[in-house]
Design a protein that fits this description.
Rossmann fold, globular, 7 strands, about 35% helix
């Protein structure tokens, strides 16, 4: 999950993790994306703990939310990592909604064939949303 995004993301990308990755990885990704933003979803307790531990990370946000109700605008994220997300219909809908045209999904938890049927296309180890 993590290395796939860090190998492909560039300076201004907007990255969404449907769970909260390791803090050391987030520190490295934060430096790699100085003009970008990283958003991590989690339950209230995990978010509270990570906000304290990651307070020094200017472009990383920890948001109390579930992957089936992502509190973000449509087509915002260039990258989404689904690792650890439940394979539920609402999660599929939300990932498709927040992924930008041309954006990439690192599909580890969700069924990639189901996402391909919904319109994402295979691009090496990623699934990409077609350009608008």
């Amino acid at each position: 999950m993590s290395s796939s995004i860090s190998n492909g993301a560039s300076r201004g990308d907007r990255v969404l993790f449907l769970t909260i990755p390791d803090l050391a990885f987030l520190e490295a990704l934060s430096k790699q994306l100085p003009q970008g933003i990283v958003v991590c979803l989690g339950d209230r307790e995990a978010v509270y703990e990570h906000r304290r531990a990651g307070a020094h990370l200017d472009n990383v946000m920890f948001v109390a939310a579930t992957p089936d109700e992502i509190p973000w605008q449509d087509g915002f994220f260039n990258w989404v990592s689904d690792e650890g997300a439940p394979a539920e219909l609402g999660v599929y809908r939300e990932v498709l909604r927040v992924l930008a045209p041309g954006g990439a999904l690192v599909a580890r938890s969700l069924d990639s064939s189901r996402l391909e049927q919904a319109g994402l296309r295979r691009d090496g180890e990623f699934l990409r949303k077609p350009e608008a």
